[in-house]
Structure formats: C-alpha cells, structure tokens
Amino acid sequence: MIAQEVDQFLEQGIDSLVKVELLCFFRRNPSTFDTARGLALRLGREEAVVSQESEALVTAEFLRAYGTGRRRSFALSKDPARLYICERIEQLITDRNTRLLVLARLQGRRR
Predict the structure, then answer these.
(1) Within 10 Å of residue 111's Cβ, how many Cβ atoms?
(2) Residue 42 burial (CB count, 10 A)
(3) Buried b vs exposed e over 9-25: b needs ≥16 C-beta within 10 Å?
(4) DSSP result, 11-77
(5) Are 84 and 76 in contact, with CB atoms under 8 Å apart?
(6) Which of 39, 80, 90, 93 could anchor a disulfide with 99, C-beta 3.0 to 4.6 Å?
(7) How far apart are CA 51 and CA 96, in angstroms?
(8) What is the spatial distance between Cα 18 and Cα 39, in angstroms, rounded to a whole number?
(9) Rounded CA separation 76/108 (Å)
(10) How far apart are CA 37 and CA 48, in angstroms?
(11) Segment 32-49 mean pLDDT
C-alpha cells in the first residue's frame, strides 16, 4: 500500500529528493516566501537545482511563484489536495523504512 502511494507521488511530479526536501520545508514553514537563492541556502543545495525543481513544483501546482528573474519567489500552494500530499509525504519520510523506499524509488527513476 505504501509503495503504491509513493509511486503515485512520483507520477505527480515529485520525482527528486530536492522536490521532497522543498515540499517538506514548505510544509514545516507554510508562510515562507523566498527566492531560489534563499531556499538553496536554507536547504544546503545549489541555487540552479533549487530553481529548476521549484519551477517544476510550480508547474505541478505544489508551489506558487511571484515575480521574474533573480527576484522570482516561491510559496506553498493553498490547494487543499496539494497540501494533503505534502503532509502525507512528510509523514511517510519520518519512518526510516518508508524513507528508504522513497530514496530507492527516486534512485530507480534516474537510471
């Protein structure tokens, strides 16, 4: 059952560790409004990667974007269905075995 749920998340575009980290970060900090640079600093990731993955999450309607260029900022979507998915992802990765399953699935997607 959990494996199917993880696969459903992957099908919805949550297909990288950075996206999972972004969604969990925004879930824990729902009023955050920040640029890719700011998010990269918070997550310890490269700005270009965070920017690319944030844009993909905007396309998938998990995040909202405001502005353009280097000032483009991101915030968590208010869509209840998307918020539920973010909550569920965070719940799943708190369990070690499920986190390993998520990582294995994400790794399998890269091949």
Answers:
(1) 4
(2) 15
(3) bbeeebbbebbbbbbbb
(4) HTT--SHHHHHHHHHHHHSTT-EEEHHHHHHHHT--HHHHHHHHHHHHHTTSEEEESSGGG-EEEE-
(5) no
(6) 93
(7) 28
(8) 11
(9) 27
(10) 8
(11) 97
For residues 24 and 90, the answer to whether their CB atoms sit within 8 Å is yes
Place of tokens 């949550």: 14
Q: Is the pLDDT of residue 80 over 60?
A: yes
pTM for the whole structure = 0.88
Inter-axis angle of helices 80-94 and 96-110, to 10 degrees? 110
Tokens read off for 13: 């575009």
CB half-sphere exposure, 36, CA atoms < 13 A: 22
Angle at 5 between CA 110 and CA 87, to 5 degrees: 100
Q: Is residue 50 scored above 80 in pLDDT?
A: yes
- What's the rounded Cα separation, in Å, for the pair 27 and 60? 16
The count of other CB atoms within 10 Å of the CB of residue 106 is 19
Total domains present in the chain: 1
Letter for the amino acid at 30? P
Let me know: does 86 contact 24? Beta carbons within 8 Å. yes
